[in-house]
Structures are given as C-alpha cells and as structure tokens.
C-alpha cells in the first residue's frame, strides 16, 4: 500500500480508489500530483501544474489554487503577485486518483500564463511527415 | 541544457522554449511528459496520461494517441483492445513544453476511462471545513 502524505489518507484497494468515496490522492515519487486547471466559464484548458500535499490542503482550505512550483522549488499561491487568483469552483479526481481537474474562475485580467497569454497552450505541434519532424506554430486562438 | 530524448531536440533557451517554433518537449526525470486529452467535439477533459519519446513519436506518425503506461511499464496504443482509439485532431504544447494538450476524436463507443465511463473525472472532491477532511462524491455528469 502506498504511503499516505499527510494530511491525506493512503490509497486503499484498487476498487476503493476507483469507485469509493475516500479521497486518497496518489502523489508521485516526488510527492506531487498533476492538476489540470480549466476555466469554469467555458471549459478552456488553462494550464497544467502540480500540487504537493501541502498545496492541495491549502487549496481545499482556502478555495484558491495553490501549487508546488517545480522550477522554484516552493509553494506557489497562483496569482498572489499577478492578481490572477484561481478561485475553485470544483475539483475532481480521476479514476486512480493521481490527477486532479480544477474548474476555476480566474481573477485579475483573467489570464493564466506567465507569458501574458490567457492560457499556456498557445502553440500547435505541426508534424511534417516527409521529414518526420515536428515544429510549433502559434495558434490563432 | 537538458538532454535531448531522441528523436526530439534538446530544449534551447527559455525564450526559445517559450516563444520559438522548435518543438523541444521537456521529458521529466523518468522520460515522460504529461498529456491532457480533451474531446475535440465539446472540449470535455477526458483523461490525463503520459508519453515517453517513443510514444510521442508514434503519436505524431500515426495520428493516433500512444501513451506510456506507468502501471504496466509499456507502450500503450490507447483503444487497441477497447476500440476507443483517440484520433488526433490537434496537439498543443504549453509554454515551457513540459505538457501537451491533445484534442481527439474517440473511436468505439466514444468512451475513454477503463472503468467504462466517458471520462476519468467522474468524482468531485467535497471538502468539509468543520472536519478539515475531503471526501469524494460521484458526479451527476
């Protein structure tokens, strides 16, 4: 049985994890769980980030998204400096509880990405069969 | 500079990674990149999974989603047994190229989750402030 990461209980059986009502998030070897943030208004996927147990607990307690910044190695209250606070409308867990889906309302200017864009997925992967190579092109929207 | 994972080039500078047109996916220490699959029709988030470089290359070449199954430790052609093939409509990379967003059309019965449901996010995290504990409840939709 995987170890618990306080304050969350350790995962139970596969059946319990997949069909039960116990919230037993499965953090990875680095103590992180992947989180997809989508705009609660139109469902647009805004970003992918990670939480550790502390960030998840704080998110639940405050109703605002807290993440773990892997690049900075610190707890990250999203929007604390930019104003782009993500107020939690709903959090869902996936079947094996190793991913979370956050429906959020974004504060400030409504943006999300640190590049200034509304979301982080602003480039399309264009694959060229002839060369077998892929390039990126900036998306129109 | 992070090592390249063949057949993809290694990431360049931060500016190149964030604003450039070179596709330089950043695989993690386990050689994986997180992938969000959404239904190309209505934008619903279906699942979160991972690809290694081989799975990503095969996805680009075939136009169908291939993942790396962390639980089974093997390449995973999504839908090969269930019929729930994910045909790629579009792939996007995020700002720092460590996450992918796949817009897919799902074959077979249109489902995605191995539990038989359309998507993997069928339970809502319900936080109880009084006890400080969270439970799951099955979502209506």
From TrEMBL, chains A, B:
Residues 47-122 form the Phosphoribosyl-AMP cyclohydrolase domain. Keywords: Amino-acid biosynthesis, Cytoplasm, Histidine biosynthesis, Hydrolase, Magnesium, Metal-binding, Zinc. The keyword Zinc applies. Zn(2+) binds at residues 95, 113, 120. Coiled coil: none annotated. Homodimer. NCBIfam families: PRK00051.1 (NF000768). This is Phosphoribosyl-AMP cyclohydrolase. It comes from Methylobacterium iners. The gene is hisI.
């Amino acid at each position: 049985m995987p170890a618990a990461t306080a304050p969350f209980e350790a995962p139970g059986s596969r059946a319990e994890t997949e069909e039960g009502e116990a919230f037993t998030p499965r953090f990875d070897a680095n103590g992180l769980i992947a989180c997809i943030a989508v705009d609660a208004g139109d469902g647009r996927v805004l970003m992918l980030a990670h939480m550790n147990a502390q960030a998840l607990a704080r998110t639940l307690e405050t109703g605002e998204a807290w993440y773990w910044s892997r690049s900075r190695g610190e707890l990250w209250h999203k929007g604390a400096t930019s104003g782009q606070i993500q107020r939690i409308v709903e959090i869902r867990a996936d079947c094996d509880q190793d991913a979370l889906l956050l429906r959020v309302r974004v504060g400030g200017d409504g943006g999300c990405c640190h590049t200034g864009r509304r979301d982080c997925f602003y480039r399309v992967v264009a694959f060229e069969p002839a060369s077998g190579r892929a390039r990126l092109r900036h998306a129109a929207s």
